[in-house]
Amino acid sequence: MINPALRRQVINIYKELLNLGREYPLGYEYFQTRLHRAFASQAGLQNDEEIKKGIERAEYVKKEVEALYYVKRYRALRQRYAEN
Amino acid sequence: MSTALKILVPIKRVIDYAIKPRVNSARTAIETAGVKHSMNPFDELSIEAAVRMRERGTPAVTDILALSVGPPKCVDVLRTAMAMGADRSIHVEISDAEVKEKGELEPLGVAKLLKSVVEKEQRNLVILGKQSIDDDSNQTGQMLAGLLGWGQATQASKIEFEGDNVSVTREVDGGVETLRCPLPMVITTDLRLNEPRYASLPNIMKAKKNKLEKMTLQDFGVDEGRRLKTLKVEEPPARQGGGKVEDVDGMIKKLKELGAI
């Protein structure tokens, strides 16, 4: 039996990642297909502990993507304004 | 006991930094229709600075007010600002038709409007982005400080509080400069001040409950006359590609041709 609280968490993080993907440099299509594949490959998990680990990994990816966006923008702006 | 902060963060909606701007066919302005817009990146830094002040807690921050002036779609950037942590916002609306006819508000007009907002809302700290990435004027903060008669610290790369004094570090040619200034004051942000947080989906949803007031320039009685006239907008000349030389002799020949040796 799958824990409903965890199920909700998984759906929420999936939605958040999808939302992040809308600005992905390689396009939403690229991001969405890979994200879907990554989640689908873990769909069979039954053990609560394993699902929690999966959620942690998703949170980690979320942070990485946010950091990627920040660095990309920072570099673009630095090139335009800070280095003459 | 230090004074509690009431912060005003003015923000601007601009063409996204990643988009290559195109000149319109009439050569009077940049094409904005159907182009992705987002919050001016320097304004994200100022929102983040304000939110971090509240998180630090000393001195206490009573209220963070975000403000944007421009066409109806500016609401999007105000929502983003509130998702990042601003408490409420004011949208001073100028209709699309008016923007098209007269152009957007100029720095002096914005500064006059902000002055009126500062007085009405009793702000004691204004944090602005140092410039917007569309017209790069870098004037609004300075003009606002002048109109209010407040101290100003532009291009801040670090902000620290010492009682009622604010010490602001700014990067200047060949080093850093530290300014100390009593409140109230105007600060403008530079790129290295902080790393703005991402406005996440749940926070955007939560921020929908925050108060967003719609106002007009007439509400503030601001003279919004345009003083500047854009004569022509042109693309920069295309960059000429470099050439490859076969060997050392070829290079020497080329250099001689150019008169370099």
Automatic annotation (TrEMBL), chain A:
The lineage of its organism: Eukaryota, Fungi, Dikarya, Ascomycota, Pezizomycotina. Pfam families: Complex1_LYR_2. InterPro entries: Complex1_LYR_ETFRF1_LYRM5 (IPR045296), ETFRF1 (IPR052000). Belongs to the complex I LYR family. This is LYR motif-containing protein 5.
From TrEMBL, chain B:
Transmembrane segments: none annotated. It holds the Pfam family ETF. Gene3D superfamilies: HUPs (3.40.50.620). It comes from the Eukaryota. Binds 1 AMP per subunit. Binds 1 FAD per dimer. The keyword Transport applies. Its cofactor is AMP; FAD. Keywords: Electron transport, Mitochondrion, Transport. It is found in: Mitochondrion matrix. Residues 27-224 form the Electron transfer flavoprotein alpha/beta-subunit N-terminal domain. Heterodimer of an alpha and a beta subunit. PANTHER family: ELECTRON TRANSFER FLAVOPROTEIN BETA-SUBUNIT (PTHR21294), ELECTRON TRANSFER FLAVOPROTEIN SUBUNIT BETA (PTHR21294:SF8). The electron transfer flavoprotein serves as a specific electron acceptor for several dehydrogenases, including five acyl-CoA dehydrogenases, glutaryl-CoA and sarcosine dehydrogenase. It transfers the electrons to the main mitochondrial respiratory chain via ETF-ubiquinone oxidoreductase (ETF dehydrogenase). This is Probable electron transfer flavoprotein subunit beta.
